[in-house]
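seq as requested:
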Amino acid sequence: MVASALIISKVTRVLLLALCSIVTPIDYCDDTTIRIWDLRTKKCVTTLEKHQSAVTSLDFSEDGQTLISAGRDKVVNLWNLSDFSCKVTVPTYEALEAVCAIGSESTLAKCLASLIQKRLKEKDGSPSIQFITVGERGIVRIWNSKGAVCLFEQKSSDVVVSLDKDEVKRGFISAMMLPSDQGLICVTADQQFLLYTPVEDSEGSLKLILSKRLIGYNEEIADMKFLGEEEQFLAVSTSVEHVRVYDLTSMSCAYVLAGHTDIVLCLDTCVLGTGRTLVVTGSKDNSVRVWDAESKCCIGVGIGHMGAVGAIAFSRKHQNFFVSGSSDRTLKVWSLDGLPDGAEDVPNLKAKAVVAAHDKDINSLAVAPNDSLVCSGSQDRTACIWRLPDLVSVVVLRGHKRGIWSVEFSPVDQCVITASGDKTIKIWAISDGSCLKTFEGHTSSVIRASFVTRGTQFVSCGADGLVKLWTVNTNECIATYDQHDDKIWALAIGKKTEMLATGGSDAVINLWHDSTSADKEEAFRKEEEGVLRGQDLENAVMDADYIRAIQLAFELRRPHKLFELFGEIYRKGSADVQIEKALRCLNKEEFAQLLEYVREWNTKPKLCHVAQFVLFKIFSILSPTDIAEIRGIGELLEGLIPYSQRHFSRIDRLQRSTFLLDYTLTGMSVIEPETNVRDAREKDMEYSRNDEEQARYKVEGQEHEKLEEKASLKRRKSRKSRDVAYKKLRGLTDRGDSSIPSPA
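struct tokens:
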């Protein structure tokens, strides 16, 4: 009976924990009770009533005889499952969210052995249970059931404790021991996963090392910058009060900079000449903070703005000041002189200069590479250039039709680039404030624009979720990338690595690498390899090695050369064995590719004969089952059948036409019908006799023609003489000699 109850308790616990993380973590245990059910009878065996508030977590001891329960009444109860009695109540003085029993063979238990000997002086020999608790304070504590002693407690929390709607502190909301002795994982209220590894130091004390921090959800990303001398970290500000620093090698959150009381809107980073890395942040709490990346502590606070700080920028050359812009429409220059190394007493920063810069909120700031100028962009549709350190106005850039979201100085030229809500990007001359170039291409507001490749190109991103790469000289967009589902608010450019990072409203961080040189090398390598393999193909054709030639043509994806090879084999008619061997070496993917080629060849009347030849060979080699397994065979056959029917119909019509032609030519005596050999010989002899007779008749005819011609010549001469005599007689008649008769 108890065994069944234990099983259903574990199942119930698993289901309840799943509900805790998905629906409402307090509904299932609001009645402060724990119920144990019998799996067979489906009835409640007993109800455990000891907690005074919601029960949030359950676990079992290693031997399965003890149930550990924790709740928001700040106590842990240990229950004997043999008689369902409460053995021990451990006060923790903290609203708990999770409890985990520690196995005796785990690394954590081995590290605790020395602590147990030191803390527990009395040794009664009874077994004890060690368990972990986490809760509203955001720290990990380890307890021993014997004596209700706290064996270990973290000195400081690794999470930012937040408040829920009911103003209740929320640190850790869940925890569990990982299998295979991989450590402890804790879950925070802001959806972070913290992985702890137990380590015993030289003094025998236990330490929990935060080995990895996984961010479950970033919310809306407001700003980001690369961090460190080698730019191996990425500082990100999201819709929370702290800054998350990611390790780019593992993309896990290395640490968190906590101190602001409201959302962090902007940040910037710099590396001092001494190698010290600083981070400056501006928040909705109207303050700016300077952080030391190595100690992960705040080393300076700037108070003075009357509105949210929405833009901030470090000095680029000397790194001894930074500039902030706020929704109170003012610019402030803050000095970094005298910053402490430690973080015990955080000093207040001093403002060196203040100016009322714009008529609306300031969205962006940029400091010139030589620290002589600062440019500010505002919602009032203007960008202003100021001389440092006194913030004296130099020139006002007017021309945008909407607010300006981003400004940046060119690293090589005396110009400034601005991005605006009017969907355009402009480059301005610093000397006179004239607009040099305008770039159009985004379909929505352009939020960020930054120079790359030494000022010859720039990258832009906007509310349309697109990242575009532009060439300054030609005004052309040479590439567009679509990897975001919503607005892109943040763009970070690596100065050394030329790496890009983008983030926005879709809570996604994308890293972009410059692959131009790699692509060129890959293209050159492929071209060189293609030339060599092409030469191998030509050599195989010269050697009449059609098997090798067909394989190379397939690998090089040369359908025209493949057609020439099949055509040559088709014309020779003696290479059927080679083509069958070549086709048998192909796999199903290559057969599918070959059928695609054949389908294209089959659409042209001049190429259909070779296509039908190859198709016949394929169907002769492959079985129907193999043909049916070819990818996309249905679509391929749909393209082959209509044209094949058309070709066969045309050949049939051509054959019928040849019969009619033969009949016509036979009727015209141009050709004779076929006869047997004897008739042919007799006809040949008859033809030869006829030819001899015709030759004799021809000679006789020629002689007869000659005689006839001579006789005709004599008659013509005699007739001519009679005509002359007649003319003489007529002449005499005309003179009156009528006694002379006329010729008969």
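The first helix runs from residue 2 to 22.
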